[in-house]
Amino acid sequence: MLAGLATxxxxxxxxxxxxxTIQLGQPGYYGPVNPNGIGLNxxxxxxxxxxxxxxxxxxxxxxxxPIYLRVPPGQAKNWGKHCQRYxxxxxxxxxxQDSWYNDTYGQRYRQQQPYYNKxxxxxxxxx
Length: 127
Known about the structure:
It contains three helices and five strands. By secondary structure, the chain is an alpha+beta fold. The chain has one domain (32-121). The strands form two sheets. The protein has a three-stranded mixed β-sheet, with no helix packed on it. A two-stranded antiparallel ribbon has the order 4-5.
């Protein structure tokens, strides 16, 4: 019986592991963004969303600063289901609009990074 099990396992092909890294500023990035220069019209909601109220302070009256997130479509509406992925269930969260991220933030971020160049890969330290 063990011989049959071993034979069956050897017939299973090895699967390749492929990793993809998406960085801040790229179109497929979801996560925290720096709110410098953002106005209320670039947010999905004018007020921050918080799932676990009452956790808005961290000891001795220090208030928790809100975080600004870009999330995939639909996650902001069902934030209670997705907030753990971002470690943000107990924090006030502002959601940024995709159009602002793609048209303004992402372009500005890429222009400020030395390893981005217009449409191609620029010189990087690890080249």
